[in-house]
Amino acid sequence: MSDAKNAVVLLSGGADSSTVLAVARRDGFNVHALTFAYGQRHAAELKAASRVAARFGVAEHKVVEIDLRTFGGSALTSDLSVPKDRAISDMSEGIPITYVPARNTIFLSYALALAEVVDASDVYIGVNALDYSGYPDCRPEYIAAFEAMANLATKAGVEGRRLKIHTPLISLTKAEIVALGTSLGVEFGETSTCYDPNSLGLACGRCDACQLRLKGFAEAGLTDPARYQSFAGSP
To answer: Is the domain defined by 6-219 classed in CATH 3.40.50.620?
Structure first.
């Protein structure tokens, strides 16, 4: 891999971003993983990100501390309650309270800066517009607009070394993501998806993220190896 090109991968530690990291490695890139400690209530994902980065032998894993609790406005960065037990059919209607204002724009901006420093022309992000279309910064048109901006706003772009933002999961179902990650060696038991885990890091099984993850594993014909809290109807 000494001749491999560099890529920056946004790695949260969840199932989607872990699969994206595996895709970048499959594509032959030397991965610089970028994780954010942004004041999220589900900080268990930070340890998961470290486990995934180590498993895939990334060249570098940076954890950047920023505090989006300064602004709040989301159940993930404030004391607002995380929605539980919502119907799957309701999850693509409107923008949920778990949306963190400008999060992907902030994260991609950091990824853009790191890409310039490590001479990478490729950035990978695990956005998905199919099973979770409620987030405005997960849509194809948003990614296209950011990529266009990035190529206007950077030294590399002005000099003709265009940046490409890869979104390999954007049109996949959760079942397809699970199948892809499994085929690429993702150990999903090492990942953390839940928006409201307990102090031991056990997933709640009831938030939107947990329900979509469980649905994906079920439809893929696989058992989710994540550890869940006990409750009526838990897996």
So the answer is: yes
pLDDT tens sequence across 14-61:
999 999 999 999 999 999 999 999 999 888 999 999 999 999 999 999
Q: Where are the domains of the chain?
A: 6-219
The tokens describing 41, both together, are 């209530």
Closest CA to 194 of 234, 142, 148: 234
Angle of the 15-26 helix axis to the 174-183 helix axis, nearest 10: 50
Strands 6-10 and 60-65, by their bridges, are: unpaired
- C-alpha distances in Å from residue 128, one per residue of 81, 125, 169, 176: 24, 9, 6, 12
d(CA 215, CA 139): 21
Question: Helix, strand, or coil here: 38?
Answer: coil
What band does 102 get if pLDDT is binned at 50, 70 and 90? Answer: very high
Q: Record the tokens describing residue 209, joined without a space.
A: 């993220």
Q: How far apart are CA 146 and CA 132, in angstroms?
A: 20
The tokens for 74 are 């989301």
pTM, rounded to two decimals: 0.94
Say which residue the tokens 């996949």 belong to.
172
H-helix or E-strand spanning residue 166: strand 164-166
Could you report the per-residue pLDDT of 176-216, keeping only the tens digit for each?
Answer: 999 999 999 999 999 999 999 998 999 999 999 999 999 99
- Give the CA count within 13 Å in the CB-facing half-sphere of 125: 25
